[in-house]
Give the backbone structure.
Amino acid sequence: MGYDVRLSAFLVNAIDDMAFLKDENLRYLFVNDANAAFFGRTPEEVTGLTDADLMPPESARACRESDLAALQENRLVIGEETSGNRTFETRKFPVPLGDGRTGVGGFIRDVTEKTGLESQLLQARKMEAVGRLAGGVAHDFNNLLSVVLGYCELLLAEDNLSQRVQSGLDAIHDAGCKARDLTRQLLAFSRRQVLDISVIDVNAVLGGLNNLLRHTLGDDIVLETILHQEPILIRADRSQIEQVLLNLAINSRDAMPEGGILTIESGVSRMESAQETGEAAACCAVIRVSDQGVGMDAETLRNIFEPFFTTKPQEKGTGLGLSTVYGIVKQHGGTITVASHPGQGATFTIHLPLSSEALPVAVKAEPRGEATTSPATIMVVEDEPIVRSLAACILESSGYRVLVTESTEDAVRIAKGYDEAIDLVLTDMVMPGMKGPEVYRAVLKTHQETRVLYMSGYASGVISSHGFSPDAINFIRKPFSVSGLLEKVTEVLKGW
């Protein structure tokens, strides 16, 4: 190596980037220590060789093309190249060698980790954008479903319906229920559905699902359930955790068309959460779902939790199953990972935070009887006219006095001028102007004994932002049924 190559070995060997100089025939005149180490050789061993001598044909061809571009076009060429599973950012430029000859020099930086992080960030932003869209659409759709299902139930309760009308209403109700379930999937994916949180035992959930899973999976799938020897307590929405397990089990069943073994295990582990939250490792509940199915390749694994991504035929899947699972797990403060290879099955592993609280003691509820005919006064605060009218219709048909308001400002005005008692405020959580909790606080200034029942299609984030614990307030989820609304109103009025 001579000084005539215009590079100082001392300087270029002090940097982490790979540096090189090639002659006009693209043979190496010089490489720094970092570049030589990449090839697994010493700098002296690399000198005189070409990329074809050192790299796989495809990688060597890509390097040659960018080298020639820098030489022939006499300019700086900035690009990106790959070798194996590594990604490199390259800067190549023409270098005068003397005697009228021109070689090519350059610097190469390994950006594999940086590219991976950028890809993860892009994926997270995409998931968040789709989630917000899905959550917004589902919230508005829930208002429409409340009206469809509510009036349908009111009509079905009428006497002397003809068989034709009865059948038509039943069909409408069934379709509305299916739409409601799909909407809940969208809300689960977007992490905007309302959770009914309580302390539950993971082992009890798995045990309770056994019969349902066996019937769902079919005779050619053998279900093995391995439970931890001690109860595993978490704070979660039991129905949502059951949906996660059912979705994963169905996904595994479809991956084993010839049959096989599906194993569901529970346990306790320590999970490093520092990458996501910056917190130290903590004890977590672990649920592991493993199958002996066809497995997945790397491309499928990268997209497995994408909304609407599916490898199933169009008639067999919506592509929302695993994205719904992902959303539910994340909303519970957990993580989900998957390991799989083609022909070697798949294993989904869920980590959820453990609860320090004890299981709630079951209290036998008193019989509630039929819907009340109490003359209690209920103020309905809802910005959607069709939902407001439905709620008023249900309550009035059950004997309540109903104060219907046109807006949040109207609700406050009516409350100030109403001399009799207002027993209950039934209010949406999210409305133009004031939010539900603000309306309730305003009503309390003149009616201190008033109780409140909140309603919304999604509200967990909104509830928390107003200082409420989502499981510590009176709440009914949209779309609600006629009986569901009346039972919840009775419950709140009686203080259950």
Q: What stands out?
A: The mean pLDDT is 80. DSSP finds 17 helices and 17 strands in the chain. The CA atoms of residues 428 and 455 lie 5 Å apart. The radius of gyration is 32 Å.
